[in-house]
Each structure stands twice: as C-alpha cells, then as structure tokens.
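User: Predict the complex with zinc ion.
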Amino acid sequence: MKVADRERREELKEVRKKKKRKVCAFCVEHSPGPDWKDVARLRKFISDRAKILPRRVTGNCALHQRRVARAIKRARIMALLPFVSE
Ligand SMILES: [Zn+2]
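Assistant: Here is the predicted structure with zinc ion placed in the model:
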C-alpha cells in the first residue's frame, strides 16, 4: 500500500514537471509594467467577475504582479475598469 502511494506521488511529480512554466509577460518584453490607461492589457489580468487574477494564474513575477494590481486599482478609480461585474 505504502509503495503504491509513493509510486503515485512520483507519477504526479512527473506530470507537474512536464507542465510548461509560465514566464512573466512584462519581463519578456523588458517592460517596466502596465500603465493604468492600458485597459486592453489590464483586462487580461482580471477575472470575469472583475477580480484581479492571482500570480499563479497570470504567471507574472512578484514585481510585475504588484504593478499590475496597482494599475488595475488606478484604472478602477478612473472608471476604466469595473470594481464588480454586474
Ligand atoms: Zn516580471
């Protein structure tokens, strides 16, 4: 039983390893981060319920995720993006 468990765990590990690692979209293009006026870009980082997507989903690095979050919050205040979906 124990052995089977371990084998299964190893299998799962293999599957995870094969998964392609996401790279930060802003690091790739050496961009300092999104602008709050760049609504088209920011829309990719919010869910259909207008929530900011977590880093594990977007694949952003910590620095750019912070900048994305700040830009989204600014865009919301400027009424370019929604706070909640209707
Ligand atoms: Zn980055």
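Residues 24, 26-27, 60-61, 63-64 surround zinc ion (CB under 6 Å).
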